[in-house]
Design goal:
Blueprint: E1 12-19, H1 30-46, E2 50-56, E3 60-67, H2 72-91, E4 103-107, H3 109-121, H4 140-144, H5 156-162, H6 166-177, E5 191-192, E6 196-197, H7 200-206, H8 215-223, H9 230-238, H10 244-258, H11 263-270, H12 276-290, H13 294-304
Helix pairs in contact: 1-2, 5-6, 9-10, 10-12, 10-13
């Protein structure tokens, strides 16, 4: 799949990510955060969308959403358009504010809700704050404190996964936030087909909920036909005369581009032990190097055509 799917159906959950154009900051002061919060509340309330977790950072934001009426794309288009107009007017900015396409990964909420909520709320930690409760622009405070919450925010589903008793649930959630053994959890490691945070069993459960327009792509995901490309990818890369590190990076690039393997599966297949951030860095450096290396650039083109 050249472009990641945006799969929508009534009752679906998504992990939504949007970044500033070329990683530029989209929130420059407190007023910007407040304006986006106001736009988010108005747009998501008018479209009957639910948010289970959010975190706004300087140059991007994360949302864990639930869409009762399968209208996430409409809501996101309106939200980003409104905030872009505000940003351009305030800062006399010309050009794009956000990256062209926001990311929206379909989520198996039964399997990944707690880890995803933790991941989203931990975004500012070690970068902006030491305690996520100190970051004003996330929903974590609404989970831990008795404070007013936005009308679109729902905390009950997540808290009840920890405990029916609110105080016990908050304590268990806080423990979960700081649990060392899960500190390296990244959603990118579990993405299937560049579109779904879930496994094959989840795909089987939801297949009857999907509109017919997804049939072809979804069938490909279910059958994972792209994994048949693994032998041809290995054969092609093995014949390239480059150092071993570059060869491994080319394999990672090819598996990302031409298969539905996620980062964990790529790690296992290649016998590596890399974090998602390391894989992302390797891919970025490979592309940057190809801008100055004609042979490497050709290898990337050849991989695209496998």
């Amino acid at each position: 799949m050249a472009r990641a799917l945006r799969i929508e159906y009534p009752g679906a959950f998504h992990h939504v990510i949007s970044r500033g154009y070329q990683k530029m900051n989209i929130f420059l002061d407190a007023a910007d955060f407040m304006r986006f919060e106001a736009d988010l509340q108005e747009v998501f309330y008018s479209h009957s969308l639910i948010i289970h977790a959010k975190c706004l950072m300087s140059n991007h934001f994360h949302l864990f959403t639930e869409t009762p009426f399968a209208n996430l794309q409409k809501a996101m288009h309106k939200l980003l358009s409104r905030y872009s107009a505000y940003f351009k007017s305030k800062y006399k900015h010309r050009g794009k504010v956000f990256e062209q396409r926001y990311k929206a990964f379909l989520v198996d909420s039964e399997l990944y809700a707690l880890d995803l909520v933790r991941y989203i709320h931990r975004n500012p930690m070690g970068v902006l704050v030491d305690d996520p409760l100190s970051w004003h622009y996330s929903s974590y405070k609404n989970y831990q404190l008795d404070c007013a919450k936005p009308i679109y925010l729902e905390t009950q589903m997540v808290l009840e996964r920890f405990d029916r008793d609110i105080n016990k649930a908050r304590k268990k959630m806080k423990d979960h936030m700081y649990r060392n053994q899960s500190s390296s959890w990244f959603p990118e490691d579990f993405i299937l087909g560049k579109a779904i945070l879930g496994n094959k069993e989840f795909l089987d459960r939801i297949k009857d909920k999907l509109p017919s327009k997804y049939n072809a792509e979804f069938t490909g995901l279910m059958q994972l036909k792209s994994e048949l490309k693994i032998p041809s990818i290995k054969k092609f890369v093995s014949g390239i005369n480059v150092d071993m590190c570059t060869k491994v990076n080319l394999l990672i690039y090819a598996f990302h581009k031409k298969t539905s393997l996620n980062n964990l599966e790529i790690n296992k297949l290649l016998g590596l032990n890399l974090r998602s951030s390391s894989i992302t860095s390797r891919l970025f450096n490979l592309k940057e190097k190809s801008k100055k290396d004609m042979k490497l650039a050709k290898y990337l083109i050849d991989i695209e055509q496998l």
